Amino acid sequence: MSRLVPNLPFRAAAWLLIALLGCLPLAALAAEAGKGQRPSKVLVLHSYSHGVFRTDGLSRGITEQFGKSVRPVQEIVEYLDVSIMGKSPGYAAYLEGKRESIKALIQSEPPDAVLLTDWKAMEFWVDNSQTFGPDLPVVYCGVGDSLPEELRVLKRVTGVLERPGFGDAMLEASRLFPEARKVLVVGEKGLHFHAVREMLHKDLANLSPRLAIEYMESMEISAIEERLSQLGPDWIVYVVGRPELNGKVMLQSDASPRISAASPAPVFITWASWMGFGPVGGKIIVPDEQGKGAAKLVLAMLGAGTPGAVPPRMEANGRFMFDYNALVRFNLEESRLPSGSLVINKPPSILDSYRHVVWTYIAIMVLLAATCGILAQHVASRRRLQGQLAAQVNFVGSLMEAMPTPVFFKGVDGRYLGCNPAFEEFMGMTREQLIGRSVHDLYPESEADIYKAKDDALFAAGPVQIYEYEKMTPAGPRQIRFHKAIYRDAAGKTAGLVGVIADITDLRRAEREVENTRNYLQAIIDSSPSAMLCMDAEGRITHANAKARASCVLDSRRDSAFSLPCVGDLSEQVSASITEGKLVSLPRRISQEGGRTKVEDVIIYPLASLGMSEAVVRIDDVTEQHRLQEVLIQSEKMMSVGGLAAGMAHEINNPLGGVMQSAQVIANRLRPELEVNRRAAELAGCSMDSVAGYLRLREIYPLLDNLRESAKRAAGIVSNMLEFSRRSTSAWLPADLNDIVERALALCQQDYNFSKHYDFKKINIVKEFDPANPFVPCSPSQIQQVLFNLMRNAAQAMSQGQTAEPVLTLRTRIEGDWAVIEVEDNGPGMEESVRRKVFEPFFTTKSPGSGTGLGLSVSYFIVRENHGGEFDVISAPGKGARFILRLPLHPKKERR
To answer: What is the pLDDT of residue 835?
Structure first.
C-alpha cells in the first residue's frame, strides 16, 4: 500500500508531461511553417492616438490575430492623432507632413496591404490613394455599417462593417425594465456620429410608438446631469457619444461614472470603453474583436490563390455585456439576461475563492478511499497468492521428479540440497548419499576444482551460467552442457543455485555431420559457373553461391537472408514459379556495366521436390555467346549486302557497256575524214565540213569525250565494288599496296551515305606512298574493307569535331619484314579510356542508331587473325588519331 499511494501524483504528472510533449511537435510544425518566408508588410493607419481605448483595443486585436497566423506579418503602424490634434489650427500642416512621411515609406518599401481604422484614416487614404498606390489592397474598420462612398474609388477594398445593435439593446432594455416608456439618447458631434445617428434612427424607429425617443441636443456634461436628474422610473438612458466639459470632449472613464451617478434611470451604452463605470450594459461593440476581424480579412487577401481576389466584408454586431454592480443597483437577476451575456465585476464564489482548498480536500478523500480499497484487495490477493504458491511448489516438485534431464540445486556453501531421480541415475548415488555433500566429496580433485570455480563465478556475477565440459565415463568421453542459475529468498538475497545437465555428445556429432554435408553441397554449388541463388515467395534471397556473391554486392540483412541488388525485382516471377511449380525462363537481360555490354540468361525453377516455398534463380553470363551471335548476324547482313552490290554492279555493267559503245559509234560517225560520213552529209543537203564546224562551235566533241570518260569512270567504280564484294581466294597473291589504298579511297569518295553526311570532297587528302610500289601477300578485298572503315571513321570524327581544315593522310612503306599502312586524321582525337576499347566488339562512341560498334572489331580480326598482322592506334585529345596496320611480307601460313 505504501508503494502505491505515491504513484498516484506521479502518474498524473506523467500524463501531463506526455500531453505537453505531444504539443511540442505541433508548436514546432507551426514555427517551421513560417520559417524561411518573407514577412508580409501591412501598413496599419489609425485615426486616433496611442492610449485611446478604442485605438488600443483595435491594435490589440490586429496584433493578436497576426500573431496566430502561419504567414509572418510585419506591422507598420502610423497614427493621425485626431484625438490630440484634431482641433488644432496646425493639424492641416501636421497631416501634410504625415502624408509625405507615408509616401516616402511606401516608395522605399511598398506594403503588401493597408489596414485603416475609423473615418479619418479612411478619408486620409482616399484623398491620397493615387499618390500612395491605387492598386494596394485596403481593409477598413470602424466606419459604419456599409461601404463608404469614398472607399468605392479603390480597386481592392473590403472591411469590417461596424453595426451596433441599437435596436437589439433597446429591446432588451425594455424587456428588463417593462415599466419604461421613454428613451433619452445622449449623443455627440464627433467625426462619425452622422453614420451612428443614421443607424440609431433606423433601429429606434422600429420601437415607436412603444418607446418615445428623445435626443439630448446639448453635449455639455452639466446640462446632461441636470436633465438626467429630472428623469422618472419610466425612463431609460441610452448613451451613444461622449459629452464635453468646458468645450472639450471627456474621456469615457470620466464621463461614464458622472452620467450613471446623475441618472436615477438605468443607463445603457454601446461602446466597451464605457463599461465598468456605472452603466447597466448593452450590446457592446468591442474594439478587439473588430481588430481581429480586420486582420483576418488582411490575411485572407494576402493568402488568396487568385490574384486580385477580394474576400467579402465582415460584420461586427457586438455582444451583450452587463455590469454586476449595476444589476444589483436595479435589482436585476442574471437569469433574466440574454443567453450568452458577459457579466463583469462579478464577485467570486466560495468555490472560486477557495478552489485549491476544496480540490485538495476532495483529492485527499479520494486518496483515502482508494487506499482502503487497495488494502482490501491486497489482503484478498495475498490469500489467493498463498494458495497459488502452494500449488506451484507441488507442481515444481512433480515436474522435477518427472524430468528425464538431471536437475540439482545447491546452497551458497556449495553443498547439494536436493536433486531429481535423473540426477541420481547420472551420479549413480541415492538422494540421501548426495544431500549435504560438496563437489570435492564426489569428484576427483581436478574435476571438483573446475566445478567449484564455476559455482563461485556464478555467485559473483550471476544470474545465469552455461558452459560445456568433456567428462570421462566408462563408455568413453561425453560432451556435457551445464545450465546453472542462482535463486533468491523472500528478502531478495542469493540462497543457492539450480543446475541442469544435458548430454550433448550425440548432438555435437550430428552437428558436425550436418556441417560437413552443408560444406560439401556448398562447394558443389559454389563451383558452378552460373550465379545461383534461392528466393522465397516474398522475394527475399535466402542463399547465394560464390558466383552470385562475387558478381553482386552483398548486404546481410539477417542470418539466413541476403540482398543482391544486381538481380532486380524478380518477386512476381519467383512467386509464379513457386505457385505453379513450373520452370520460368525470362527474356534475355542486356545491361551496361563499366561501359561494357553485359548479357545474361535468367531461369527460375521451384524446389517442389523438397516441399519448400522457394525457387532457384540461375543467372548465366552469355555475353560472349551473344556477341558471337551478333557478329554472325552482322556478317550475314554484310554478305547479303555484298551479294546485292555484286548483282547491282553486274546489272549496271550491261547498260554502261551500251552507253560506252554508243558514245564510240557517235564519235566515229562524226569524223569528217570518213567517206561514208561525207556521202550521208551530202544526201542530207550539207557538207561534212559544215557539220564539223557546227560540232566545234557547239562543243559537241568535248561533251562526247566527257561522256566516254564518265562511262569509263563508272565502269572502274563498278569493277572496284565487284572486287570489294568478291570472296577472298584461299591462296593469297601479292597485291599492289598503293593500289589497295587508292581503291579504298575511291570507294569512300563514291559512298552515298558517306558523302551525304561528311562531304568527303572538303577533306584535304595527303598521300605519302612508298615510291617502290611494294607488293604484299594478302586478301585485297579484306584489307580494302579495313581501310574503308578507317577512312569513313576518320571523316566522321572530323565532321563531328567540327575540324576547321580537315586533313586525311594516307601512308605506305616497308619496315623490315612488314608492310605498313597508316591512316591519320587531324580530328578531335580520343581519351585514353576510349583508345583502349576501340577494337572491342559493340563498343561505339556514336549516337544510338548511328553505329553497331563492329567495324573496328571486324577490322582488327581481319588484320590479326586472317593476316597475322598487327593493328594499333595512337591518339590523344585534340591531336587527332593515327591507325597503323602492319602486314607480314612473309606470312607463316595462308589463312582463309
So the answer is: 79
Q: Does residue 25 have a cis peptide bond before it, meaning omega lies within 30 degrees of 0?
A: no
**Cα–Cα distance, 406 to 745 (Å, whole number):** 98
pLDDT tens for 705-719 read 778 777 776 776 666
Residue 18 makes CB contacts below 8 A (sequence gap 6+) with none
Q: Over 70: is that where the pLDDT of 7 sits? A: no
> pLDDT tens-digit profile of 129-164?
888 888 889 998 877 766 677 777 788 888 888 777
- Residue 232, helix vs strand vs coil: coil
- Res 267: pLDDT: 94
Residue 731 has pLDDT above 80, yes or no: no
- Condensed to tens digits (0 to 9), the pLDDT of residues 508-533 reads 888 888 888 888 877 888 778 888 88
CA max distance for the chain: 160
Res 44: pLDDT: 94
Q: What is the mean pLDDT of residues 890-895?
A: 61
pLDDT tops 60 at residue 425: yes
Can you say whether the dihedral through the CA atoms of 221, 223, 229, 234 is positive or negative?
negative
CA-CA distances (angstroms) from residue 461 to 486, 494, 516, 601? 10, 11, 37, 58
Helix, strand, or coil here: 137?
A: coil
What φ, ψ does residue 241 adopt, rounded to 5°?
A: -155, 175
DSSP string, 499-555: EEEEE-HHHHHHHHHHHHHHHHHHHHHHT-SSEEEEEETTS-EEEE-HHHHHHS--E
Q: What is the pLDDT of residue 146?
A: 67
Residue 299: phi and psi, rounded to 5, are: -65, -40
Scanning the structure block, which residue is given the C-alpha cell 598521300? Answer: 767
What number of other Cβ atoms are within 10 A of residue 338's Cβ? Answer: 14
Task: Indicate if the alpha-carbon torsion angle 537, 541, 546, 552 is positive or negative.
Answer: positive
Note the pLDDT tens digit of each residue in 736-791. 989 989 888 887 876 544 444 566 778 889 999 998 888 999 888 888 888 888 88
- The SS3 call for residue 426 is helix
Q: Which three cell numbers stand for residue 725?
A: 564484294
Question: 733-736 and 764-768 as β-strands: parallel, antiparallel, unpaired?
Answer: unpaired
740 within 8 A of 787, measured Cβ to Cβ: yes
Query: Could you tell me which residues come within 8 angstroms of residue 357 by beta carbon, excluding any fewer than 6 positions away?
Result: none
**How does the average pLDDT of the chain come out, rounded?**
80
> Does the pLDDT value for residue 642 go beyond 60?
no
Q: Which helix (H) or strand (E) holds 851?
A: none
3-state DSSP call for residue 387?
A: helix
Beta strands in 389-526 (DSSP E): 407-411, 416-419, 464-473, 476-488, 494-503
CA-to-CA separations, 583 to 533, 541, 543, 615, in angstroms, rounded: 15, 18, 19, 9
Strand intervals (E) in 667-760: 733-736
φ, ψ of residue 83 in degrees (nearest 5): -65, -25
Distance (Å, rounded) from C-alpha 143 to C-alpha 126? Answer: 13
Strands (E), 331-475: 342-344, 407-411, 416-419, 464-473
The angle subtended at Cα 796 by Cα 793 and Cα 798, nearest 5°, is 110
Instruction: Give dist(CA 809, CA 802) in Å, integer.
Output: 18
Residue 155: CB atoms within 10 A of its CB come to 12
For 420, phi and psi rounded to 5 degrees? -105, 170
Helix locations, 698-839, DSSP H: 700-725, 737-750, 752-758, 780-800, 832-835
* 8 A C-beta contact, residue 584 and residue 604: yes
Residue 209, preceding bond cis, omega within 30 degrees? Answer: yes
Cα 851 to Cα 846: distance, rounded to the nearest angstrom: 6
The average pLDDT across 674-692 equals: 85
User: Which amino acid appears at position 552 of this protein?
Assistant: C
Distances (CA, A) of 411 to 416, 451, 482, 483: 7, 14, 17, 16
Question: Does the structure show a pLDDT above 80 at 22?
Answer: no
Q: Has residue 357 got a pLDDT over 70?
A: yes
> Hunting for cell 550475314 — which residue is that?
636
**Sequential DSSP letters for 23-46:** HHHHHHHHHHHHTTPPPEEEEEEE
